Amino acid sequence: MVDERRERERRARAAGAGGAGAPPPGANRRFGERRGAVTPGALPSALEGIVDGSDFLSLTAEEIYRQSYAPAVAPDRAECLAFRLGEEEYALDIEVLREIIFPPPVTIVPRAPEEVVGVLALRGSMVTVVDLRRRLGFGSQGATGRTRILVVHHEDELYGLIVDAVSEVVRYVPTAIEPPPPTHRRMESDYVRGVIYHEQRLLIVLELDRLLAFGEAR
Predict the structure, then answer these.
(1) Distance CA 13, CA 17 (A)
(2) DSSP letter at 184?
(3) Confidence (pLDDT) at 196
(4) Which of 42, 43, 80, 200 has an alpha carbon 20 to 30 Å from 57's alpha carbon atom?
(5) What is the pLDDT of residue 145?
(6) What digits encode the pLDDT tens for the residues 51-98?
(7) Domains along the chain?
(8) 9 alpha carbon, distance to own chain's centre
(9) Least confident interval from 118-122, 136-140, 170-174
(10) What are the backbone angles phi and psi of residue 119, rounded to the nearest 5°?
């Protein structure tokens, strides 16, 4: 009887150590991770730290962004990516954005337009790199820690637009876009679709078709 009682007590202690003390399922998952989410290691490294030098992954290629991070967009709203050139903020429709990368080495193309810096290879695809400052008539400047290249899709080709910094994704009502103000220079206005007033800031929305129409009269 004593031996049987000791055996039952031993089994009870063993069960308690493996049950009550064991962490619940998912307890070891880090804060912010969710079941079925894309793990950090599975995301392209180019997506890390693209917003104001931070480490969170808030902007991605369109498919990952929409499926894994962004809530549904209301039918009467659109999205654009805001970025900086000098002291002003510009924007492009998120639909044309493929991804955002850090500036890699670029191969120079002889006799290309002045604003075309060269080409680069991105996972087997050729990307034409355009200095957006030169394209809009600003003086060119060297790359900084916040310089990024916006890889966009246009007429079955990929282009990389060099910008000074990426700001955020902005949701807006399409009817809220207003005509460009007369204060902007003629050359810049040729590429401007309109402006958006967002949180007491003026965003200049660019027209990609005109922006990448090299060789056409302005």
Answers:
(1) 6
(2) S
(3) 92
(4) 200
(5) 93
(6) 433 333 334 444 444 444 455 556 678 899 999 998 899 999 999 999
(7) 2-211 (2.40.50.180)
(8) 60
(9) 136-140
(10) -130, 160
Which residue reads 């369109």 in tokens? Answer: 62
What H or E segment, with its residue span, contains residue 16? Answer: helix 2-19
DSSP letter, residue 68: I
Instruction: Name the 3-class secondary structure at 103.
Output: coil
Higher model confidence: residue 180 or residue 162? Answer: 162
pLDDT at 176: 87
Query: Which amino acid is present at 212?
Result: L
Q: Reduced to 3 states, what is the DSSP secondary structure of residue 25?
A: coil
Give the C-alpha separation, 164 to 138, whole Å.
12
Question: For residue 65, which of 198, 168, 136, 175 has the smallest C-alpha distance?
Answer: 168
**CA 22 → CA 15, 25, 31, 146, distances in Å?**
10, 9, 19, 45
Tell me the CA distances in angstroms from 102 to 53, 67, 98, 151, 187, one per residue in order: 11, 23, 14, 10, 28
Q: What phi-psi label fits residue 36: left (phi over 0), alpha (psi between -120 and 50 degrees) or beta?
A: left
Residue type, 54: S
**Band (11; pLDDT cuts 50, 70, 90):** low
Q: Which residue has the tokens 């007491």?
A: 200
Buried/exposed 37-61: b ≥16 CB within 10 Å, e otherwise: eeeeeeeeebbebbbeeeeebebbb
67 secondary structure, DSSP code: I
User: Residue 210 is inside which H or E element, if any?
Assistant: helix 208-211
